Amino acid sequence: MAERTPEMLVEAFEAKGLVTFSDLQKALGNASRATTFRYLKRVSYLRSYNHNGRYYTYRDPALFDRFGLYSREGIHFSRDATLSDTLRRLVRESQAGWTQRELQELLRVRVQVLLLEAVRHDEICRERVAGFYLYRHCDPAIGKRQRQRRQERIEASLRRDDEPLGVDDAVIIQVLLALIRHPGSGPADVVRTLRGHSPPIVLNQVVAVFARYHLEDVGKKGGAMNC
Description:
It is a single chain. The protein is mainly alpha-helical. The chain has three domains: 7-62; 83-157, Arc Repressor Mutant, subunit A (Orthogonal Bundle), CATH 1.10.10; 169-221. The protein has eleven helices and seven strands. Strand 2 and strand 3 (55-58) form a beta hairpin. It starts with 5 loop residues before the first helix and ends in a 6-residue tail after the last helix.
């Protein structure tokens, strides 16, 4: 057989996009697990944080969204490689902290156990805000800013519908996720879908997101969106 090289793995990634470890072994001429791992260390790759890490893909920075995430065919990857590292980064870098539900909907996997583990190890902190747990940075100054920003958003969401409301990343995520699950929905439909969300998301916020991203046209066409 031809001499093994790391480029064989790169070619496998380029040919299929998503591969399993068995695919990588075959690309190296049915190499052993140890040999495959040795060559894999010499290639820039990512392993999925869902499906028990079964899938691999070539690490291309251009694929990541603004949250450092990339999904394909229901298989999810993060620039941080592991879900634990991803959660820590998202919480520490956030402007207003995250709730468990927000992180779970963004990452599309269950996160409660890993969040609690990170809290136990003082890697992130949490506190009750308006009846729900807010996960935030453990640095007192940064955590205080995150909490204040979250409280400002909660107060804004409680205003009357005819008053202008702020729209931040968390609101945008919820609206886009609602449209992915229910394509063709209008603003009022999205508000009904998000009923019970904490903090509440009201009509003016949804309308603002629709206007910013021209979602009325997308909804009419029933087109798919990436978020």
